[in-house]
Structures are given as structure tokens and as C-alpha cells.
Amino acid sequence: MFKGLYTAASGMLAQQRKTEILTNNMANVNTPGFKAEQTSIRSFPEMLLSAIDDTNVPTKKGLNLNQIQQIGTISTGIYLQETMPNFTQGDVYETNFNTDFALVNGNIPAGGNIFFRLAHPDGGEAYTRNGNFTLDGQGYLVTGDGYYVLSETGARIQLPNEDFQVADNGAVYVNNQQIATIGIAYVENANELVKQNNGIFRTQNGQALPSAFAQGNITFAIKQKFLEGSNVDPAQAMTELLTAYRAFEANQKVLQAYDRSMEKAVNEIGKV
Predict the structure, then answer these.
(1) What does the sequence similarity comment in the record state about its family (predicted)?
(2) Where are the domains of the chain?
(3) What percent of the chain has pLDDT over 90?
């Protein structure tokens, strides 16, 4: 009976965590560059149940032989194994702001992806697909959280004002003179990145990713006055959210049934 309690409880915990992730996806449906979280639920190893009986053998010494009869398997519950961002590109839309940029994937190998390069406050580089940038008080191009946008050479990009142009190849022009190139990083396996708050990604070992411009087998473009939208599908997310909620309710009812059975066992059978 207690095995059933643990199985139902594990189901509730897994579905509760999935509900939290789906709710966060829904809350960021309008966040530029947001990548929806995907969940992977796995089952714990099943247990094989067997019945052991004694069989008397009619011999002079009266031998007893154990007979093992397999009954079947029992599940020991489920758990949320991991969460992974979905790196498919969101829709690109126009904003008409000079400091907004959208990365448009061209020929990118399967599993790989490209990101804007940022200077992380703790040192090293960070990466994002959210090109909703602005200029700080000193004219540096920064994210909404104050991360400096890096150039191809790894330097901060300083501009005199918002009157500048960026070509599709990332070249930044002021008064028709190129002053920098927006840094774009490339990762072969995007799932190896660690997701942090506000659409920021970092490598697991803290090492900087290689430049996307040095990869001869990929193509991409940078669109000024455009942003990449969230890749959350609201209809699908709502459907998955309702499914997770119903699964949570089902496990909850099973848990309540076990609780009532234990209550009877203690209060009624114990009196006999």
C-alpha cells in the first residue's frame, strides 16, 4: 500500500514541476528571443513481484521446497528528468527602433545555433537571442539588464547616438564609416549551454564560444529594427498545461483513496 502512496506522490511532484515550467513559458509568450522550456519525464525502474510458497514433499524426512511464482511488475513512480530549451527560431517582426536586432538563421547545422555575444558581469562571455538592446549613459550598446554587447573583436560597442546603421553581416556604420561588427557566437550543440535568467545562456565550463563569422559552413543575417519573438506556441502550451493539471488531479485522487484505506485499517480493523 505504501508503494502506491509513493508512486502517486511522485506523479504529483512531476506534474507540479511541469506545470510551473509551462506557466513560465506562457508568461514569456511576448518576450523577445525567449526559448520555450521542454520537459522530459521518465519512469523509475519497475519492480518484479513474486510469490513464494512452501511445498511439502512426502519423504521420510519431510522436505519443504520453496516455489517462486512471478506475479508481475509494479511501477515505482515517475520523475521530471530534465528541462531543455527549444532553440527553434521565433517569428521576426519589425519594431522601427535602431537599437533592436534580430538574428535570422540561414544554413545552420542541426543541433547548432548562433547568439549575440555579451560581456558577463562575473567575467567571460554570455549569450542571448534577445536583440532588444539600448544605449547606456556612455553610449555603449547594452541589453535591458546592462550586459555590454560585444563586437567581433570582443570589445564593447560605443556609439555617439542612435543614428547608426547595421548591415546584414553585422557591420556597424556611423556617418558611412564602419566602426565595429556585432559579435555573433556559434555553438555546435545548443543543448550544452546553461540557461540563466532573462534569456541569458553560458557555456558549462565558462569558455567562450567560437565566432560564427569564422564558420564557413553556416549562413545568417542580422536585421536592424527587427526583433525575434518568443517561440512559445500558446495553444500547444495551454493544451499541455491542462493535460498536466488533469494528471496531477488523477494522482491526487489516488493518493486520497490510499489515505482513506489506511484510515480504515487503523481505526476499524485495529479495533477487531
Answers:
(1) Belongs to the flagella basal body rod proteins family.
(2) 2-83+233-271, 92-228
(3) 59
